[in-house]
Amino acid sequence: MDIFLQLVINSLIAGAIYSLIACGFSLIYSTNKFIHFAHGGVIVASSYIFYFLFSLLHLEFYLSCILAVILAGLVGYLINLIIYEPFRKRKASNSILLIASLGVLILLESFMLIIFGANVQTIDYIDNVQGLSFYGAIITPLQIVIIISSIILFVFFYLFMKKTRIGKAMRAVSDNVEVAEIVGISASRIYSWSFVIGSMVAGVAAILISLEQNIEPSMGTGLMIKGFTAAVIGGLGSVPGAILGAFLLGFAENFGIWYLPSGYKDAIAFVLLFLFLLFRPNGILGIKYNTK
Amino acid sequence: MLKINNLKKHFSGIKAVNDCSFGVEKGKITALIGPNGSGKTTMFNLICGVVEPDDGKIIFSTNTGDRNIVGMSVEKISNLGISRLFQQSRLFKNLTVLENLLVAEDNEDQKFWKNICGLNRFDKSKTEKATKILNDFGLNEITHLTAGELSFGQKRLVELARNILNYHTVLVLDEPVAGVNPKIRDDIAKIILQMKKDGETILLIEHDMSFTLGISDKVIVMDAGKIIVTGTPEEIRNNPEVLRIYLGK
Fold first, then answer.
1. Domain boundaries, chain B
2. pTM for the full model?
3. Which tens digit of pLDDT belongs to each residue from A228-238?
4. Does A169 contact B103 at a Cβ distance shorter than 8 Å?
């Protein structure tokens, strides 16, 4: 029972982190209709921005968090403006944008490597805190913060997409960009905002990851694979699907290593990814899109 | 209101629109007719900025004077005042009927910080205006449904309502009654005639000849990318060239 409960808690924590990655990724995919792998690079950049502000500049914790999230949005905005927008103007296909996104992912990870070095870095904000016992399972205060932050962000995200006008305009562009433009919505502006918002969510994920584990320049690729897998399971382009997929992935990984050696954790994610791509490519809540 | 001057568009050697010129007068219904493949929809795509012409000008009268809209983006042309109804129904499937109308009503959707701070709600008067149009169109029972749940005829009416609500000085309607049942066809005819009475400027494509000739002030006949005849509905009805194109006589 203790192990079972511990695995449930671990699954929820993993799911919360994956869902923050998948959520922003899915939002960007749903409006832009291409796979933005550089989202992983935005997470790495945001982690190091947070590390720089908090651990090196010694800014106040909450100020560092706010600045890191804003700067994450700025990084996303600039990637779209400098890299993707010129490609779109040249009518580049989604495959070209995907390849460009892989290039940007490598570029951002390499930048962090040059600036901060290859050593892992640790942000010691909440250290040596006694974990709380819950029916024999242990959960740390930080892990509780991760779960609560994710829930708050999902509610905010849901309200933003459902209730605000920009959210509705994003859903319109996601549905049919040609018609959205015909009714006067600027698709290029909506693309920009989706990058800003998606990257700000990635910024929140980056802060929580930085507090929970060590950071290193190459971690973006691994995190992006988890976020991408979660998005595929839930259905590419569906934000609720991405959240569902992230928690399913978290549970599959953590319960999988109950029976398998822990080294197989990543393999479980890949197997799930392959299975969904082969047998249910639209995912659980996915939408069929006509992509170029 | 709208002047098309020597417009040309070729697709891989096919002259889809070949040196066409015509005008759309304010407060009148101008119809563009012709057999399939005559270049009517390409002409609409050129006017709305969906495709760019190889040559020619499209002069549009705006509040700030006449402007050549060639090369402008689709949304800019829309915001200048050209509102288009597509040949195939194209509503936002994941938005409700009311939301479909509201996103088209103005250009306030993209003001990011106002949205984030919750200050950019739909103006009550705008929601009322959208609701009124839906009531007038007999769609008041379905405002909460998503567009994906509607019948073809309902979609057509919602789309027409969206076009009317979208800021415009010219309405560009591509086959508004294609594929709808006779009841909805009559409803749409009444709506268009009411708009004409209200002084709306309309450019129309329609295959239904009796419908088109019954409501238009001016008819332009296209064939193989060229304008072959322009005249009143009566002149068009008796024109031997038009009869030849349509009936092969």
1. 2-247
2. 0.85
3. 999 999 988 78
4. yes
